[in-house]
Every structure is written in structure tokens, then in C-alpha cells.
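re the bet — no i am not wrong, look at it urself. input seq straight from the record:
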Amino acid sequence: MPETPSETWTTRKLLTWTTGHLERHGVDHARLAAEMLLGHVLGVERLRLYLDPDRPASSAERDRFRALIERATGHEPVDYLVGRAPFYGLELAVDRRVLIPRPSTEALVDAVIEHARSQGRPVSVLDVGTGSGAVALALAKSLADASVTATDVEAEALAVARGNAERLGLADRVRFVRGDLLGAVAGERFDVIASNPPYIPTGDLAGLDANVRDHEPHGALDGGVDGLACVNALIDGAADHLLPGGLLALEYNGGAQTSAVTERLGRVSGWGESRVLRDHEGLERVVCCVREAQGA
């Protein structure tokens, strides 16, 4: 923002100028980004910005805000800049060690909650590739009597997830284990296995938006040649880690991946009929399948 000694930069004026500036630089959801950044600098919730719109920003606050705007126009994710992201009614700490939780993943949480509540008893849930802990913590918060285990191959991601569990008062509700996919829980069985694994085809990574491609961890995005390396591994191995009648719920990229995922579930022994669910934008996002009881 321009610095003119005689000009007073109020909250209202900062939001208006910043929204336009971010829009001109191609930042998505520019108004929301401006609110998040200014609220972060001023130490207030977004709503508070509108309750005191004529508050003048100090020189130090303007300097901090200007520095964040510059990083945002360079397509650094706003959630990383403010250090937090919303998910399923929770506020999670996030940084470049973990993928930023997406609203689309809430469909995965919804599917697990629906199944768990239909059982009429406490259930055990495994969240594979927990990252920030978003899915595991949302489930622990929503299912007060559930036993939740969360795994990740990255120690740094688990550190973020554990920190979020502590801040949310859920540290005693979630067991965190380091390991790759199902290798972290060898010999264990659960009522539900849920996962938001990497599902972007390797060849598509270069075409992702700059804020994703250049800043979020590629290990949480890269799903191999067809995007389904981890999804297929979970389909092939999850039945051995589910109790009879247990649910496998997987997030994937929809579109062309739908037929590949449902066909594989139909070929692999141990699975019943699959069901595809849509996310908040109406896109195919989650596949659910129940482990058949026979042979348990």
C-alpha cells in the first residue's frame, strides 16, 4: 500500500485497498485473504474488523501488514502466512510441513460420522496420512466415544498434528503413530479406515496453482503416475485391517479416477458394493466401501 505521511489508514481503507491489490495480482478470494491478513496483524477476529472500521493502523502494524501482502501477492498461501486454517468447525495450526485442509475433505469426515453413528456403539477409527490432524481431530471432536488413531510417514507432520491436538484439548483422544500407510498399524484392526491420501498425478503437479505447487508439501500431493498409487495400496490392504462390516472411506480426485477406484474395489477380494459421495461443490470426492463379513 502506498505510504503517504498525511494519510490515515483505517481498517476500512486497508481492507478496500488490499482487496483490490490482491485481485489485481490474481490472489483467489481476495476479500477473505485481506480480512485474514489484517485480522492476524491486529490480533482480532475477522468480525471485529467490521465492528471498528475506523480504527487507524499504527506505523508498525502497517509495516507488518505490508510485508504479508507482498508475500501473498507472491502466491504464498494465506493460511500459512497467518499460521492457521479452519476445518470442520476447528481452527488448526498449519505451516509448510503439512497440506492446508480443504473444505472438500469435510465430505470424508461426514461419511465416517454417518457410519459411526449408525453402529450404535463406540467405534475405532484409523486416519491414514493425517497431516495436520484435520480428519482425526474432527472425528475425535464429533464422536465423543470413538477411539481414534492417526498415522503419517512424516515426523514433522505428526509434530504439527500433535500440537493441534494439544491446543484443541484432544491430546488424550487421538493416538499418533509414525509409519507409511498401513505399515504403522501392523496386526491391528479397526471399525473405520479413513484417508485423504496424495492423489494428484505426478505429471499434473507442474500445472497446479502456484500457491499449491510452490509451497505445499509435494509428498502430500503426488499420487504417482495416475494419482492412485496410495489409493490403490489402501484398497488392496485395508480389508486386512478392518473388522467385519468395517468401513473404508477414501478421498480421491473424482472425474476419471472414479471408474478406476470403483473398479478396483470390485476386483479386490473382501469388499462389498462401493458408494461415491460428492463434496460441497457437488464434485465426486469420496468413495466408501464396507468389508464383507465372510472370511473374517
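see?? The beta strands are 84-87, 90-93, 124-128, 147-152, 174-178, 190-195, 242-251, 275-278, 284-290. told u. also The CA atoms of residues 73 and 148 lie 39 Å apart. so pay up
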